[in-house]
Design a protein that fits this description.
By secondary structure, the chain is α/β, with parallel strands linked by helices. The chain has three domains: about 1-300, Thiamin diphosphate (ThDP)-binding fold, Pyr/PP domains (Rossmann fold); about 335-515, Rossmann fold (3-Layer(aba) Sandwich); about 525-645, Rossmann fold (3-Layer(aba) Sandwich), CATH 3.40.50.920. Helices cover about 40% and strands about 15% of the residues. It has a five-stranded parallel sheet with strand order 1-2-3-7-6, with helices on both faces. A five-stranded parallel sheet has the order 9-10-11-13-12, with helices on both faces.
Length: about 650
């Protein structure tokens, strides 16, 4: 039966790719035995309750092989019908790469290689932290594995190697990676681009390495997974030697990677593998086999866990209540607890943010995060010490200088559930994190990205460290809420929104330099995206529109313009994303048409042209000079803003 059960995966993949005339059959044919062994022997899932918290997570990091995932998820009983399989890569339930929130049984959006593996590191990290938080000597509540199927391409991506390094350092023993090692990639043999010794490499990074020489032997794969599960102190890489496009005339070559094999070759493959069924036909005994081996077993494990949860509630009611609060993720931010931050003349918004994180961490034990070797500068630091092999309750994650993996790991932790997670970095290095930030937006998950040193005002570090185009770049990502607060009040408003978000990632962009606490800023009005900070007194002669530290500059310019007989309004726009969501009536109330408007921001002017053609920004790279010199050189001074407004 195992042969038919494996070949059912293979032929669903072949037939779907042929029908779509698009897709990647090679990995489906080669890795089907690995998927079969993993699902029938190890993975605990409940297809009727796909979000069961203590389920094992399976990540297809090699997301181009999506039909492998759709096929086995169909066979085990997820809500993926045969019609869905037939409509592979068409509008519907089976897109070309797995998409989180779109198809049942898909734990993350994968396909950009390396991202899925890095997400899995985050999931394993979350499991380890929550197990330390809630498990008791007599009751184990959080106890599951994170499994990954990856290919050669994943292990060549920098994001994966950064994440693999951190996973080994942290000893994430419940992370098990199955490496579909077929020695072929799109452009030809892997050896054209890669010649490293995987055993020595992974062992040097603190991993257990296991080799399965025959990828068509599910029993050998099963034994390897059992061995990996016995090693609790290290993550495990199981290298499985497979044959891409197994059974076809192009097997073992790059031609099997990303093209349909065609109807004639599919018929020939049926004969070679002795598969006597029509396209999209699966015998009933195969469904029965998967139901017995995967579906019913997973449901039994889930029922047992529910009983464990009930016992836990009886014996540890306070911890159970805390656990439930972690799952719901309700984290209201009370203004009154932070009022002291709003007092005084001002501070760098990065410092204010750090104090907010510190206070939030006291209120919410599910808040966890850290920075890329920059916490002393970003102030984005978790509580309760450093998360490590020996201190799983630590809520400060030392990501090291691994910005890209940090973004993807944070996404994985959020996807896992039960935690509010943030990452901290210098804003210019959001470039290193961009693919992970973009995927957070695609998946509609509430990851929190804290970016500091937000403009040329950081001064002496020079143009390599001074962000110019980054604000425009992140604002261009659909569904990403980029908030650049003007002062302490708006910084608190930004954190309120980030903590409350359910389906929106948030990037909070903060200053290095001290900024004034502005009269007229409002914690709650940040949610409107833009609002009037200082209105005109009588007749509206124009508008100064700004964000971040430039709001204070705009207010100084407003005062100077009034002395010259010009009555202008100052509008703070901390979030373009949120302002676009407001009603047209509100938008016109804040920014009425046919009114002279000058936008001011120490970054690329591009994103402001949606609101006015008159923008004073920075459309060149910066320079290395003290902060005060930079402001003079680039014209971010009161009199220059006044003159630019008057010339409109």
């Amino acid at each position: 039966m195992s042969k038919h059960a494996i070949d059912a995966i293979r032929f669903l993949g072949v037939d779907a790719v042929n029908q779509a005339n698009s897709g990647h059959p090679g990995i489906v044919l080669g890795a089907a035995p690995a998927a079969y062994a993993l699902f029938t022997g190890h993975i605990n899932i409940d297809v009727k309750k796909p979000k069961w918290f203590n389920r094992d997570r399976f990540i297809l990091s090699a997301g181009h092989g999506s039909m492998l995932l759709y096929a086995i998820n169909h066979l085990v009983g997820y809500a993926i019908s045969m019609e869905d399989i037939k409509r592979f890569r068409q509008p519907g339930n089976t897109p070309g790469h797995p998409e989180y929130g779109h198809t049942e049984g898909v734990e993350t959006t994968s396909g950009p290689l390396g991202q899925g593996l890095a997400n899995a590191v985050g999931m394993a990290l979350a499991e380890a932290h929550l197990a330390a938080r809630f498990n008791k000597e007599d009751i184990t509540l959080v106890d599951h594995y994170t499994y990954v199927l990856c290919g050669d391409g994943d292990l060549q991506e920098g994001v994966a190697l950064e994440a693999v390094s951190l996973a080994g350092h942290l000893g994430l023993g419940k992370l098990i990676v199955l490496f579909d090692s077929n020695d072929v990639q799109l452009d030809g043999d892997v050896q054209l681009a890669y010649s490293e010794n995987n055993k020595l490499k992974f062992e040097a990074m603190g991993w257990q390495y296991i080799l399965v020489e025959d990828g068509n032997d599910p029993q050998a794969i099963n034994r390897a997974v059992k061995r990996a599960k016995r090693e609790q102190a290290k993550p495990s890489l199981i290298e499985i030697k497979t044959e891409i496009g197994y059974g076809t005339k192009v097997s073992g070559t790059s031609k099997a990677h990303g093209s349909p094999i065609g109807l004639d070759e599919a018929e020939a493959l049926r004969k070679r593998l002795e598969w006597p069924f029509e396209p999209f036909e699966v015998p009933e005994e195969v469904y029965v086999h998967y139901r017995r081996k995967v579906t019913l077993r997973g449901q039994r494990v889930h029922r047992t866990w529910r009983q464990t949860l009930s016992t836990y509630q009886e014996k540890y009611p306070q911890d159970h209540a805390l656990f439930q609060s972690f799952l719901t993720g309700e984290t209201p931010v009370d203004d009154h607890a932070f009022k002291h931050l709003l007092e005084g003349e001002g501070d760098a918004t990065r410092n204010v943010s750090g104090k907010i994180i510190e206070q939030l961490s006291k209120q919410y034990l599910n808040l966890i995060g850290g920075s890329a070797d920059l916490s002393s500068s970003t102030k984005a630091k978790g509580a309760d010490g450093h998360f490590s092999k020996n201190h799983r309750l630590g809520r400060n994650i030392n990501f090291g200088v691994r910005e890209h993996a940090m973004g993807a790991i944070v996404n994985g932790m959020v996807l896992h559930g039960g935690l509010k997670v943030f990452a901290g970095a210098f804003f210019v290095f959001s470039d290193y994190m961009k693919p992970a930030v973009r995927l957070a937006a695609i998946m509609r998950i509430p990851s929190i990205f804290v970016f500091t040193h937000d403009s040329i005002a950081i001064g002496e570090d020079g143009p390599t460290h001074q962000p110019v185009e980054q604000l425009t770049g992140l604002r261009a990502i659909p569904g990403l809420n980029v908030i650049r607060p003007a002062d302490a009040a708006e910084t608190l408003g930004a954190w309120q929104l980030a903590m409350a978000a359910k389906d929106t990632p948030t990037a909070i962009v903060l200053t290095r330099q001290t900024v004034k606490n502005v009269k007229g800023t409002d914690v709650d009005m940040v949610a409107r995206g833009a609002y009037v900070v200082s209105p005109e007194k009588q007749k509206l002669d124009g508008i100064l529109l700004a964000s971040g530290s430039e709001v204070s500059l705009a207010l100084d310019a407003q005062e100077a313009l009034r002395a010259k007989g010009k009555d202008v309004r100052v509008v703070s726009m901390p979030s373009h994303h949120l302002f676009k969501q407001q009603t047209k009536k509100y938008q016109k109330h804040i920014l009425p048409g046919q009114v002279k408007t000058l936008a001011v921001e120490m970054g690329s002017s591009m994103s402001w042209h949606a609101y006015t053609k008159h923008v004073f920004g920075v459309d060149t790279f910066g320079a290395s000079a003290p902060y005060e010199t930079m402001m003079q050189t680039f014209g971010f001074e009161t009199e220059n803003i006044v003159q630019r407004f008057l010339k409109i």
